[in-house]
User: Which sequence fits this backbone?
């Protein structure tokens, strides 16, 4: 059983929902990224999505684009992202880490080489934004051969056929993009999300996480009421952006702890 699966099963047994924060590896530098990973765990993260910076992050809004630019300017690479995971695993063997990024860095390293290196580093899942499910058989097989969960996105525009394709190759959880836009977009329609999730659950028994547009504890609580996991990214990146190196961990910790309390309101 993967760390991701066991985490969701433990939470379900406790009647709780998962909190999945996102940060970009190397923003603003590798050392702070490692410290932030531990901060996220202390603040209540159940799974962490660690962004692999890329020069053309097509699914990301300006906030995460800037984070990628800062990380790349400091020399962050896919290999160095894996090194951060190795360092994190020296002190934490429990919290699942999901790499989230784009196909180009993986293709440059080589799919099989990446899968092996990711497993050795302690990666639990990989979400590649521009690997569509109908073209991801090799990716899914390479990940599963190393005990890594291939995770896929679904959107409000996803057809029943696309949902079925994702269900056939995904494991770990499914990430539902709550709106037709890029990360950090506003105008989250929770009622529309609630209408779509049953269609997804008809096709897969995997947990469903919801992200894009979740910026505070109140919204997180409402999403936790209908989904299995709440994914928060841009708001955390904004907090890092507005902080100094000395205050970033404390500020992020306060934000994530507040969102954690919102998520846990569902159990109450």
Assistant:
């Amino acid at each position: 059983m993967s760390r991701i699966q066991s985490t969701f099963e433990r939470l379900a047994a406790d009647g709780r929902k998962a909190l999945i924060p996102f940060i970009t590896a190397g923003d603003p530098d590798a050392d702070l990224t490692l410290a932030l990973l531990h901060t996220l765990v202390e603040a209540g993260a159940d799974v962490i999505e660690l962004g692999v910076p890329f020069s053309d992050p097509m699914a990301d809004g300006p906030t995460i684009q800037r984070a990628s630019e800062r990380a790349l300017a400091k020399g962050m690479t896919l290999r160095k992202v894996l090194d951060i995971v190795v360092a994190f695993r020296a002190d934490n063997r429990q919290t699942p880490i999901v790499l989230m990024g784009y196909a180009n860095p993986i293709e440059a390293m080589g799919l099989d080489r990446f899968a092996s290196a990711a497993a050795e580093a302690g990666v639990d899942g990989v979400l590649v934004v521009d690997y569509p499910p109908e073209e991801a058989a090799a990716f899914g097989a390479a990940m599963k051969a190393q005990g890594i969960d291939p995770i896929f996105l679904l959107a409000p525009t996803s057809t029943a056929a696309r949902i079925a394709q994702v269900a056939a190759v995904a494991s770990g959880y499914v990430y539902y993009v709550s709106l037709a836009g890029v990360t950090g977009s506003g105008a989250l329609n929770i009622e529309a999300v609630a209408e779509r999730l049953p269609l997804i659950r008809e096709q897969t028994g995997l947990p469903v996480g919801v992200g894009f547009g979740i910026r505070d504890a109140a919204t997180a609580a409402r999403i936790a009421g209908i989904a299995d996991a709440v994914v928060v990214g841009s708001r955390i990146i904004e907090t890092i952006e507005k902080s100094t190196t000395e205050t970033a961990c404390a500020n992020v910790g306060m934000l994530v702890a507040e969102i954690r309390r919102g998520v846990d309101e569902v159990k109450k």
